[in-house]
Write a structure and sequence with these properties.
transport, cell inner membrane, D-Maltodextrin-Binding Protein, domain 2, Nitrate/bicarbonate ABC transporter substrate-binding protein, 416 residues, 5-stranded mixed sheet, 16% strand
Length: 416
């Protein structure tokens, strides 16, 4: 299967618009896009939940920059306290869609974090940009990385050390487990793990409830600023250009509101493209997100890592080769089936699934490439990959390409 992307040309864009009765207009004159006729969004207002993390940026900027109006909808971002709150409000219908952990949505579909609900992944919101923080006490005792931590854990009674992540089937749990296991630390037998909402991570480490956590920004940077922790690893060191947050919703919502779903994805996709267009746009995004209505934090906690400028808090500084990305010519937002399947392999590895699932079938059911393609065509100028699978090499040298998921899930020495 060729990996050469198919570029959506201006001619193809116009042809698509003609096929839809002229409802689609060229970028720059799309103020009335999907504003009338049978192609109009079924809803005027779309309620989108988010957790105060840097990677909610495309949702927030889509609303504040007016990209939503361009496609005939009004996005109303709803700030939530925890991923459990996002889950409950999305399932109940109080939210139309949400900024979500990738694995969280797959867990909902499979009933791994509550009652099973048919779900839909409309697009990926970002790649990279999470972190694993260890406490300053560990740093002061000479521990700077996973190998040093492994020696300390091996010399201690099981469960002596506690680590936090944000949701049982979420991305942060999977990055933390993978990082620990790669160093020979069993995340269930050797240490204790707990769930803590992102905004509460720093406070819980400050009072000694855990010695490490995995979370999104700005909470890793905040831990450094408050001198209670340091960045031992970034999530992109675990899995370069990994999928992170997604724009998720209920499958039934897409069935009932297909034009609204397309408009929502188009608006958020265009906001993501705007954010990635320049360092100045990223700086502006950081200034906006720092405000009380969004992350309620200091701009300085956001800007550096938004620009890929890292300071570990332990003497290491670098310009990251895999910074948080929101667009990258559309590759970030594409609902790669292999991305969803990877989380299923980790659910199998850690005993969340007791048998191999239908990896390909589940990814095809959840990841709505049809909605993404319609939105990409509306936005214009976005490359469409010719394959639903992509290849990645993780920190332990394992190669993931989505072709033999059951074999991949069974390859790990440390499992549950």
């Amino acid at each position: 299967m060729s990996d050469v992307p198919v570029r959506i040309t201006r001619r193809r864009f116009l042809q698509a618009g003609a096929a839809l009765g002229g409802a689609m207009l060229l970028p720059g004159v799309m103020g009335a896009a999907y504003a009338a006729g049978s192609d109009a969004p079924e809803l005027n207002t779309v309620r989108v939940g988010f957790i105060p993390l840097t990677d909610c940026a495309p949702v927030v900027m889509a609303a504040l920059k007016g990209f939503d109006k361009k496609y005939g909808i009004s996005i109303v971002p709803s700030k939530e306290a925890s991923w459990a709150a996002v889950r409950d409000k999305l399932v109940s219908g109080e939210l139309d869609a949400a900024h979500m952990l990738y694995g969280m949505l797959y867990g909902l579909e499979l009933g791994l974090a509550g009652k099973a609900h048919p779900m839909a992944n409309l697009m990926t919101l970002n790649q990279n940009g999470q972190g694993i923080t260890l406490s300053s006490e560990l740093l002061e005792s000479g521990i700077r990385d996973a190998d040093g931590l492994a020696k300390r854990v091996a010399a201690s009674a099981p469960g002596t050390y506690t680590f936090a992540h944000t949701f049982p089937t979420g991305t942060h749990a999977m990055w933390l487990y993978y990082w620990l296991a790669a160093a020979g630390i069993h995340p269930f037998n050797d240490v204790r793990t707990v769930v803590v909402p992102p905004p509460q991570m720093v406070m819980n480490m400050r009072i000694g409830n855990m010695v490490g956590f995995c979370v999104g920004e700005p909470w890793n940077a905040r831990a450094i600023n408050d001198r209670i922790g340091f960045t031992a690893a970034t999530s992109q060191e675990v899995f370069p250009d990994h999928p992170e947050k997604i724009l998720g919703t209920r499958a039934a919502w897409v069935t009932q509101h297909p034009h609204t779903a397309r408009a929502l994805v188009a608006a958020v996709m265009e906001a993501a493209r705007w954010i990635d267009a320049s360092p100045d746009n990223r700086r502006e995004t950081a200034r906006v997100l720092a405000r009380r209505a969004w992350l309620n934090t200091k701009e300085q906690y956001l800007t550096g890592r938004m620009l890929g400028e890292y300071d570990s808090g332990a003497g290491r500084r670098w310009q990251d080769a895999h910074p948080m990305r929101f667009f990258n010519d559309g590759d970030v937002s594409f609902p790669w089936h292999s991305d969803g399947m990877w989380f299923l392999t980790q659910f199998r590895r850690w005993g969340l699934l007791t048998a191999d699932p239908d990896y390909q079938g589940i990814a095809a059911r959840i990841n709505r490439n049809d909605i993404w393609q319609q939105a990409a065509t509306a936005v214009g100028g976005i490359a469409t990959p010719s394959s639903l699978l992509r290849t990645s090499t993780l920190m332990d040298g394992s190669r993931w390409d989505g072709t033999r998921p059951a074999e991949y899930a069974a390859r790990f020495a440390i499992t549950r």
